[in-house]
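Quick review question:
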C-alpha cells in the first residue's frame, strides 16, 4: 500500500518507512561521509530532518560505524523465540518449516548442538551468558540463520520477555511481527494499491487458492459442519437463524446474494430453505468470472441465476427480493480517503474537492450519518453506503437483508495491509444510521451472537504464512490440511496417526471468539435490515 518495511536480518527489527528513507539508507552502503549525506538529503525528505532519521537508524543498528565489528553488538541482547514458527522435534534435532507470504516453502534443519542452543534461548539469558556453555561460532551462526528474514524464528531484544509477559501491549511490535511481503530493491517503483474492480475481475485466477490463502473468510473456515455451530455449517446455521427469527417468508423466497465467494453459503442456504419447504429463487451478483465459475460448479447452474458484474452498477428491479445476503464483501467495495475540509468539517483552505462535498452531503448528511468525529484524514465507505441504499430499494415489503463484515460500531475504517489488495474495516455505526435514514428498520449484532457460537470451543491461531508452513510440514507426512477452522478435536481427527502433534510447534489455541486461524471472530458484525 505504498509503504516499505525494513527487516533487520541480524536483530529482527521491523521498521516501516517511505521509499525515500530506504533510498537514503542505501546511500550509506559504501561508508559515505555522514555529514555530506545528511546535507544532500536535507531538502529531499519533505519537512523531515534527515539527521533525526540517521540517529534512529544508528540506534537500531541499521547504520553502523565502518570501524566497528557489527557482530560484537549482539552479545548484550536476549534471544527470544519469534512468533508464528512451525517446527517438529525428532530425537535431539529440530526442523523448521517456513512459507512467508508467497515465498517458496523451505525446511531448516538444526543439528544436535544447534538444537541445544535453541533450547537454551529461554527469553531471559543474554547471548553473552550462553558463551560459556556453547560454542561461540555456533551461537553466532545460529543467530544469523534463525533471525534472518528467510526464517524469522528468532528475535533479539534488549529486555527479557518477563518484562512484557504481564504487559504484552508494552512489547516492541517487532517481537511478535513477521515479514510476509516480497523483497523490494530501492530505486525500483513501489507497486501501487490495485484498483479493486480490476483486481476482482482479473487478478483472481484460482478460486480455491483465493480463499485458502489470500483472503480467508469466516464463512470459509466454517464451511464444514463445525462444533462451534452445533455441527452445522455457516450457511446452514445462517438459514436456521433467519427462519427462526421470521426473516424468511413461507412459500416462494426470492434471494439475492452479493458476492458469493466459492458458493458454500449459497449451496447450504438453498438446501436448508428447500428442506424447510420453501421454494427458493436464488440470484447471485458476482464481479469475478473465476469465482462465478466456481460457484456454478458448486451450487449447480440450474439451481441459481448469475449476474456477472459490479453490484453498484447492475440494474435490478425495485422491491424484487425477499432476502438479500452480503457476506464479508463490503470491505472490498470502493472507498475514498478524504480530509475534514473535504466535508466542510474544517475551514476551507482552498483545496476542497467540491464534487466530493456534494456527493457525500447527499449520501451522508441527508441520511443523518454523523461524520463530526472523523479523524484526519479518514476513509469514507462510499461503496458500502451505496450498497445499503440499493439494498433498501431492492427489498420487497416485509423483506430482510443481512450484511456481514469485520469492523466496529464506532471505529472509523482502517486499511488492512496484509492482503495483496486494499480492504477496509467497516464502520457499522455509519451503515446503521444510513439504513435508518432511508426508512428501514436496522440493528447491528455480533456475528458470533447472531449464529450463537459455542464460546467454550478453542480455535487454532495462525497467520496465512504460519498455516502454509504447517501444511508443508503435514504434506511431508502425506497429509492434506484443508483450510478450515480447526478445534483441537478437528485437527486430531484430520491428522489421525500420521502426525504426532505433541512433537509439533507452535500450535496455539485461543478462545474461538478471539482467534480462529488468522481471523478474530468477535470483530465480525452483522447489519440486519428489514423493510
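Suggested answer, residue by residue:
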Amino acid at each position: 500500500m505504498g509503504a516499505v518495511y525494513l527487516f533487520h536480518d541480524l536483530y529482527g527489527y521491523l521498521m516501516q518507512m517511505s521509499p525515500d528513507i530506504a533510498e537514503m539508507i542505501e546511500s550509506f552502503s559504501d561508508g559515505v561521509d555522514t555529514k555530506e549525506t545528511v546535507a544532500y538529503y536535507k531538502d529531499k525528505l519533505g519537512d523531515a530532518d534527515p539527521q533525526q532519521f540517521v540517529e534512529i537508524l544508528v540506534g537500531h543498528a541499521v547504520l553502523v560505524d565502518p570501524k566497528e565489528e557489527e557482530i560484537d553488538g549482539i552479545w548484550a541482547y536476549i534471544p527470544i523465540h519469534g512468533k508464528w514458527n512451525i517446527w517438529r522435534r525428532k530425537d535431539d534435532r529440530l526442523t523448521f518449516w517456513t512459507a512467508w507470504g508467497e515465498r517458496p516453502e523451505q525446511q531448516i534443519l538444526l543439528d544436535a548442538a544447534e538444537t541445544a542452543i535453541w533450547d537454551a534461548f529461554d527469553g531471559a539469558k543474554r547471548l553473552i551468558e550462553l558463551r560459556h556453555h556453547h560454542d561461540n561460532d555456533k551461537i553466532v551462526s545460529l543467530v544469523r540463520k534463525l533471525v534472518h528474514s528467510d526464517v524469522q524464528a528468532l528475535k533479539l531484544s534488549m529486555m527479557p520477555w518477563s518484562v512484557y509477559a504481564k504487559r504484552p501491549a508494552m512489547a516492541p511490535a517487532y517481537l511478535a511481527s513477521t515479514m510476509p511481503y516480497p523483497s523490494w530493491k530501492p530505486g525500483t517503483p513501489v507497486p501501487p494499491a490495485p484498483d479493486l474492480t480490476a483486481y476482482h475481475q482479473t487478478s483472481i485466477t484460482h478460486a480455491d487458492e483465493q480463499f485458502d490463502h489470500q483472503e480467508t473468510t469466516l464463512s470459509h473456515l466454517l464451511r464444514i459442519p463445525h462444533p462451534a455451530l452445533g455441527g452445522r455449517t455457516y450457511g446452514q446455521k445462517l438459514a436456521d437463524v433467519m427462519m427462526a427469527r421470521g426473516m424468511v417468508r413461507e412459500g416462494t423466497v426470492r434471494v439475492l446474494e452479493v458476492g458469493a465467494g466459492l458458493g458454500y453459503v449459497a449451496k447450504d442456504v438453498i438446501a436448508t430453505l428447500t428442506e424447510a419447504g420453501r421454494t427458493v429463487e436464488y440470484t447471485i451478483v458476482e464481479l469475478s468470472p473465476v469465482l462465478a465459475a466456481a460457484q456454478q460448479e458448486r451450487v449447480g447452474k440450474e439451481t441459481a441465476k448469475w449476474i456477472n458484474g459490479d453490484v453498484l452498477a447492475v440494474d435490478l428491479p425495485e422491491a424484487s427480493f425477499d432476502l438479500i445476503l452480503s457476506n464479508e464483501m463490503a470491505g472490498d467495495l470502493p472507498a475514498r480517503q478524504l480530509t475534514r475540509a473535504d466535508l466542510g468539517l474544517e475551514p476551507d483552505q482552498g483545496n476542497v474537492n467540491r464534487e466530493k462535498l456534494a456527493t457525500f452531503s447527499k449520501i451522508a448528511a441527508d441520511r443523518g450519518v454523523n461524520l463530526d468525529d472523523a479523524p484526519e484524514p479518514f476513509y469514507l465507505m462510499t461503496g458500502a453506503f451505496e450498497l445499503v441504499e440499493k439494498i433498501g430499494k431492492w427489498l420487497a415489503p416485509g423483506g430482510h437483508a443481512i450484511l456481514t463484515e469485520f469492523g466496529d460500531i464506532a471505529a472509523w475504517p482502517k486499511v488492512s495491509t496484509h492482503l495483496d489488495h486494499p480492504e477496509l474495516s467497516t464502520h457499522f455505526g455509519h451503515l446503521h444510521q444510513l439504513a435508518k435514514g432511508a426508512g428501514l428498520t436496522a440493528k447491528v449484532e455480533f456475528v458470533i451472537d447472531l449464529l450463537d457460537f459455542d464460546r467454550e470451543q478453542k480455535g487454532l491461531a495462525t497467520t496465512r504464512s504460519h498455516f502454509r508452513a504447517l501444511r508443508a510440514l503435514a504434506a511431508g507426512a502425506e497429509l492434506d490440511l484443508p483450510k478450515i477452522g480447526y478445534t483441537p478435536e478437528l485437527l486430531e481427527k484430520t491428522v489421525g496417526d500420521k502426525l504426532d502433534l505433541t512433537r509439533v510447534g507452535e500450535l496455539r489455541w485461543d478462545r474461538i471468539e478471539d482467534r480462529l486461524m488468522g481471523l478474530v471472530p468477535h470483530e465480525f458484525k452483522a447489519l440486519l435490515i428489514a423493510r
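Why it works: Residues 164 and 171 are 6 Å apart (CA to CA). Residues 348-354 have pLDDT under 50 and may be disordered.
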